[in-house]
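Chain A, query sequence.
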Amino acid sequence: MQVLGTHAGIIHLLDSTGERIKSYKPHYASIVDISLDTNAEFVATASLDGWHIISASRTCTNDVELPRTSCRTFYKHGRIIHIQLEASNAHRRS
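Chain A, predicted structure.
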């Protein structure tokens, strides 16, 4: 899986051939970093809007603004320029 982030805060998930699987908008400003876990189950993004968001790639719906209550959200005042998911921390509770 490939993941692209835009200046408009949109995430595009692509398959191995480059075809779009889905798109969603978790941010209100440019996305500056993206991280995937080893199974491509979770997507973590950092943005100039001050938020970094961890969302499950399979539960995001196409072409909608993602409510921040549907994923783990963290706010840090100021600019965030990097985010990284640890491979050993990627698991679901249920």
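The two ends are 23 Å apart (CA to CA). The longest strand covers residues 20-25.
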